[in-house]
UniProtKB/TrEMBL annotation, chain A:
Species whose genome carries this gene: Mesorhizobium tianshanense
Record NCBIfam families: kdpA
One GO CC annotation: plasma membrane
Domain of life: Bacteria
Lineage: Bacteria, Pseudomonadati, Pseudomonadota, Alphaproteobacteria, Hyphomicrobiales
Membrane topology: Multi-pass membrane protein
Name the UniProt record assigns to this protein: Potassium-transporting ATPase potassium-binding subunit
TrEMBL record, chain B:
Gene Ontology molecular function, alphabetical: ATP binding; ATP hydrolysis activity; magnesium ion binding; P-type potassium transmembrane transporter activity
Binding site for ATP: D343, E347, F376, T377, A378, Q379, T380, R381, M382, S383, K394
Active site: D306
Domain P-type ATPase A: 103-207
Designated name of the protein: Potassium-transporting ATPase ATP-binding subunit
Amino acid sequence: MTLNGWIQILAYCGIVVLLVKPLGGYMHRVFNGDRTFLSPVLGPLERALYRISGTSEREEQHWMTYAAALLVFNLAGFLVLYFLQRLQGSLPLNPAGMTAVEPGLAFNTAASFMTNTNWQNYGGESTMSYLVQIAGLTVQNFLSAATGIAIAIALIRGFAKASGKSIGNFWVDMTRCTLYLLLPLCIVLTLVYVYLGVPQTLGAYINATTLEGAQQTIAVGPVASQVAIKMLGTNGGGFFNANAAHPFENPNAISNLIQMVTIFAIGAALTNVFGRMIGSQRQGWAILSAMGVLFIAGIAICYWAEAAGNPLVHALGIDGGNMEGKETRFGIALSALFAVITTAASCGAVNAMHDSFTALGGMIPIINMQLGEVIVGGVGAGLYGILMYIVIAVFVAGLMVGRTPEYLGKKIEAKEVKMAMLAILCLPLAMLIFTAIAVVLPTGVASIANAGPHGFSEVLYAYTSAAANNGSAFGGLTGNTPWYNITLGIGMLMGRFLVIIPALAIAGSLVAKKTVPASAGTFPTDGPLFVGLLVGVILIVGGLTFFPALAVGPIVEHLATISGQTF
Amino acid sequence: MSQSKSAVIMDARILGPAIGGAFRKLNPRTLSRNPVMFVVAVVSALTSVLFVKDLVTGGGDLGFSLQIIIWLWFTVLFANFAEAVAEGRGKAQADSLRKARTETQAKLLTGDDRTKFKLVPGTSLKVGDAVLVEAGDIIPSDGEVIEGVASVNEAAITGESAPVIRESGGDRSAVTGGTQVLSDWIRVRITAASGHTFLDRMISLVEGAARQKTPNEIALNILLVGMTLIFVLATATIPSFASYSGGYISVTVLVALFVTLIPTTIGALLSAIGIAGMDRLVRFNVLAMSGRAVEAAGDVDTLLLDKTGTITLGNRQATEFRPVKGVTEQELADAAQLASLADETPEGRSIVVLAKEKYGIRARDMATLHAAFVPFTAQTRMSGVDIDGSSIRKGAIDSVLAHVNQSISAGSGARPASDAVRDLQAIADEIGKSGGTPLAVERDGRLLGVVHLKDIVKGGIRERFAELRKMGIRTVMITGDNPMTAAAIAAEAGVDDFLAQATPEDKLKLIRDEQAKGKLVAMCGDGTNDAPALAQADVGVAMNTGTVAAREAGNMVDLDSDPTKLIEIVEIGKALLMTRGSLTTFSIANDVAKYFAIIPAMFAVFYVAPGQTSGPLQALNIMHLATPQSAILSAIIFNALIIIALIPLSLKGVKYRAIGAGALLSRNLLVYGLGGIIVPFVGIKLIDMIITAVGLA
């Protein structure tokens, strides 16, 4: 590790923290329906949209109506994306003449983009037409992000509102999120990326003759716009197969920094929106602090492991850290940082190959995802994910001070505990069960590239990434097979909707409860004690489940490596 | 704390039967009430079947498997044992209560004439029947006194041997079946049928038979089931991981890992904690009608306390004599004493005491003085004495002034000097402002002065209220006094708020207002007019001396009829919740060490490099446990023994400390969270050393 590396890491953290308050304040106004500086331009458009769709801005929904609207909307998005892929051969905007995507892959991709996972079993430039990229993938990038944010806002309302029935209006939340937050930011970011050298064109791929005289096809396309939303909406699906390691997606250090900042920006600011909506920004900072502790711990281990390098390589007389699979543009510190950010949030964009990380360095991204991506997390998903852990933490801690547990004045009772446990349970269910089957099933094993524990890690990483809706791949594993296309797709759907429904149910249950005023008997949830408690609960309740799996994957690989054992 | 019954945690009389109880509770129907232990029993049965199969086919490491299986069953038995011990403590009490519920003959009245009755068995009585109970009779069932007054020995239910008075009308009309009338007779209307009496309810409550899971217990059970499911996933996927890694894990070992990981400690002790919580209240002579009420007590935000008897000593006491100008203190004290000699009210007695202590005026005999006592009536609002043509009266200022004016117009006295009246009123105002009650004294139409009667705030009550404030509980004093007096006493006692000139409607409204703000309210009461408020309050403690209506309305009954107990009830409720939370934390925190014991033991056979005896994961054996078998065995033994070790704590409860929620949480997190991580490391290592030394593994 170098001082320079740490300065870059801490500078990054500083920028994210500085953005929390202004962005949080703006988002708070947007979701409250207050006037913002964009209202003169977007207000008429927003109202026109409501008129056309017959939505009433003031009509709030019961949690079940909200959830039903969300499910119908997502199903529609899924079907559109599926059929766009299947029919792309006969649709316009297909200069490269791509043919229909086969059903398994189309299902996987549709599930992937609808759930904000953006796992890519396809190579973007070699499979998808421009139409699919623009009208299918990019549209879902916006909508899946807006869906996540809407759920978080609905859940916050459950805590913030003192006894009511409704948790907001799904259509209004979606419209405001897309119109006031995602679109304006993406327009600005797209222009910045274009300025930094990212292509943005609907023209055909470029055929070039190299100096040796060979013919080379250089893939281009509407890249900048997709890069903008894939980071901001923590989608992570690259335009190109190499994702943010590709020089057209991530040309230099500045674009790399902007991309890393935009991955965390909305997720971190949502903690502030939470604080503002419940009337105490300190509560939001406490949540962000717990996230921060886990983040710093993750980056410290990952950066240390990567900088320490591989003893087997050292034995060959090659000193230094582990540069395998990393871009020299970014180096070890920024590659490790990017890997931790992209898996802490549910982004999944990569600027280095995680498969090539050292065993421990590669374990951190896996753990980040297994914890449910609550370290800032996917837009919205991170906040509602950590709120599930908070329900559990507060329940146990509340008992320890001799009261029926309460958080922010809302009593945490059987229903909330049940729903939070369901949400927490669905992740190990999808991650471990599918991994367990895949590592003994011949079809599953056939896709594994490496022997021994590293091969195990590849499978574990794949299902972990799918169920956590991350979308980054360890690499090595051949994912585009019927088995993986279907099971990974199912994992993504489980990881998304088996968390969303309980989260909304909690919102509905909480919103109906009276707010109990705090007293000296209520333990403070905005101090270091609570932060420590929350971190402990996340690690023990969320993490211990995966200890056996990690032991036979990255941990045994690490121990074998240091003793010079190879497979 | 006036704990009237011994609080020995465990003694031989309870432990013996509890061992039998532990085996009886292996009944699947009983086990299924506790999901975590039910799962343990199921997997224990599974491994037992597999063991028998191995025994027949001759496969596997039989000695090792047998030991694991034995400890698995011990885990279940220990959990049952904990519950049986908790129940046993209640049973001992129930038995003594049962003795009171002997068959009695009741004198069923056939008409209004109390001499006409027929003898029927007590069990045949119906609600609404009227019975006669005379000196020496056992009251056959719960009822309300409709005629007469009697002294009753209620030792059978309260443990208090001093008899209490029960009379018709008023707030002391309830009688309890099984108690004995010592003197006089009463006519009682039966209010509870046989099998549904207070005593019956008490027996089933202390035995735990009527125990239902409380809301909080249900929520905790859901959490425990969730944790169990999570670890089902964690362990059920291991065989496949093992097969990929080129190894094999036996079912017995997997079951051992699973049982040590799921929260068996809290699962085993959960119902014992609940029973013990109720039991602590019973030992404290408070009877909760449901576990829900005990939990609610821990959550109370607002405590309504009656001034009289709770905050102040039962009665006002004379603290000084304030004569008007021209009268000496001695003269006033002498008159006041004479007027109070025959006054048996506590106020009257306190005047006699004050006159003696401060002015050395001895008690005189009324008869030798030829004195006739004039008792207090609601019309005159005065009492006094007539001695040889001279009359002394004491009473409320207005009444005495009116009396003086009247006797003047009747021509039997001199017109009182107007400055004496002014003086008297000035003194009275001053006393009133300080929270006291002025009592005017006159002799033969001449105003002498004022006796200052004062509410005496109980010693130490201010500190109790400060403690409650630290718990986050607001105290509200309820009194019939005027606001000025109430404010003065409230300030002296240190309550947070007061409700003056309170009517039952005011009380009810106050409770509803607090509840509308989301607060939980506790109160105690005894009168029939308290019943609506008792029913509305989240925790309503009825005094045992109270009326039937009050006892029915409350969700707790205090057998000692001591309203200050409300504070301890809150503490017991909090201790109950804290015990659950602390042991849950401990149980979950234990998993870290158990992983470090079992995972290396299970996985050390994977990827063994040529020339090595164990694989890379042996490095995780940070406790340096002797062998894989000893490691697994140590973990499962620790897991079972910790249940036994924690039974005393779960019965006694984690002590509540009024140090503020933040400090309390960090304290408990340190003890049960951090302790829960460290203790099993030490424990498992010790057990490993022992079983290795004796050659068990």
